[in-house]
Amino acid sequence: MSTRNLTLDLHPIYNKGALIDAALADAMDEAEATKAKQLEIIYGKGSGALRARVLRYLERKDVRARYHRLDKDQRNHGRVFVHFRWSRGQ
After folding, report:
1. What is the pLDDT of residue 32?
2. Looking at the chain, which terminus has fewer C-beta neighbours within 10 angstroms, N or C?
3. Residue 28, CA distances (Å) to 41, 65, 71, 84, 87 in order
4. Which is higher by pLDDT, 23 or 2?
5. Please, what sign has the CA dihedral across residues 83, 26, 61, 66?
6. Does the structure show a pLDDT above 80 at 2?
7. By the 8 A CB rule, do 35 and 86 touch?
8. 29: number of Cβ within 10 Å
9. Can you give the residue range of the structural domain that contains 56?
10. Is the pTM of this model over 0.85?
């Protein structure tokens, strides 16, 4: 089981819709490939539009099936943590 944590910072592509979805999909793929324990997604505080987009993506049924739990950081509203649970042999 991995203790690896991944980070995705969306600041450089905050206004490029297709790139945001691709970056999120790539990060989820990498988390699965490396059996990461946690994926930190940084979207910043701003107007909340990017946050809403990220949360909509993560709540999609096909994406939701890929992770165990989602935690919104209570101290920093500009990021969210996606937690994974891997079974032995998976």
Report:
1. 94
2. C
3. 11, 11, 16, 10, 17
4. 23
5. negative
6. no
7. yes
8. 11
9. 5-83
10. yes
For the record, the structure tokens of 9 come out as 């910072």
For the chain, what is the largest distance between any 2 Cα atoms, rounded to a whole number of angstroms?
A: 42
Q: Which of 5, 19, 84 is nearest to 53 (CA)?
A: 19
Q: Output b/e per residue, 1-13; b: 16+ Cβ within 10 A.
A: eeeeebebebeee
Residue in the block written with tokens 């890929």: 66
What total of structural domains would you count in the chain? 1
**Could you tell me the CA-to-CA distances from 68 to 47, 76, 82, 85 in Å, in that order?**
28, 21, 8, 6
What is the tens place of the pLDDT at every residue in 67-85? 999 998 888 889 999 999 9
Would 88 be classed as within a structural domain?
A: no
